Amino acid sequence: MIRKCLFPAAGYGTRFLPATKAMPKEMLPIVNKPLIQYGVEEAIEAGLHQIGIISGRGKRAIEDHFDISYELEHQISGTAKEALLNQIRNVIDKCTFSYTRQVEMHGLGHAILTGETLVGSEPFAVLLADDFCANDDDGVLKQMVDLFAIHQCSIVAIEEVPMDQTQNYGVIAGDEIEPGLYQVTEMVEKPAPENAPSNLAIIGRYILTPDIFDILRQTKPGRAGEIQITDAIAAQAKSGKVLAYKFKGRRFDCGAIEGFVEATNFVYENYYTHGNNYPNRKL
């Protein structure tokens, strides 16, 4: 039903300078695996094997990562280190990767619209790699794909945040139709706490129906002069049905240094020190 997942990956990662001056922020490692690989593995677990990456200048390392490295593999062939490449080989074998470039940065909505050529006229997922989600059971995208099979509409992942942090997120209001699942009635991009309709914040997991592209084409620049996906989904909710899902799991904001360090410590302490790779995705 859903086969494709878009990864917007054209941003500059300025909060991690100077590390991201020449390296994509999506390639920053949580222990020994880049953020974007964790995201692709989450997509595979959800049954999404067609991966579209919205790239930009200086992002060549992402393409190289999801490709065969003949010289490296020749060098470590037959050694104990060869097994360290098993996970990424598995990912490469299971997926097809397509790339398009976002020439100018005009917001997440613009990035997703740029990906229309990779998606076509079918429902698709969007995953922001710097929102790292930890789950021992089903990953967030798997949970959302299962919901889409029932409801057949756009779905955003949400979590509760402190009211004084609403200005950092898109925020929804809605009617709870079952525990943890809301039908969206309002959606606002980065509202001040006194203007926020709730403390239910959107995080970097979306399932979108293809009519979102026509809506994005009509969406005027909003906050910061950018085309906001929040504004487009809000318009979609008014003309149809959009759900917000309070996902099961734990999220780390790896777009910020504090969240990145917290995620690294969490994965190392809870998995690698016990001899287990994380996550144990069903690939």
Question: What does this protein look like?
Answer:
This protein has a single domain, classed as Spore Coat Polysaccharide Biosynthesis Protein SpsA, Chain A (Alpha-Beta Complex), CATH 3.90.550. The chain starts with a strand and ends in a 13-residue tail after the last helix. The strands form three sheets. It has a five-stranded mixed barrel. Strands 2-3 form a two-stranded antiparallel ribbon. The protein has a two-stranded antiparallel ribbon with strand order 7-13. The protein contains ten helices and 13 strands. Helix content is 31%, strand content 25%. The chain is α/β, with parallel strands linked by helices and 283 residues long. The relative contact order is 0.18. Helix 5 crosses helix 8. It is globular and about 60 Å long.
Give the secondary structure arrangement, pairings included.
Blueprint: E1 4-8, E2 29-30, E3 33-34, H1 35-45, E4 50-55, H2 60-65, H3 70-76, H4 86-94, E5 96-101, H5 108-114, H6 116-119, E6 124-127, E7 131-134, H7 140-151, E8 154-160, E9 170-178, E10 181-189, E11 200-208, H8 212-218, H9 229-239, E12 242-246, E13 250-253, H10 257-270
Helix pairs in contact: 5-8
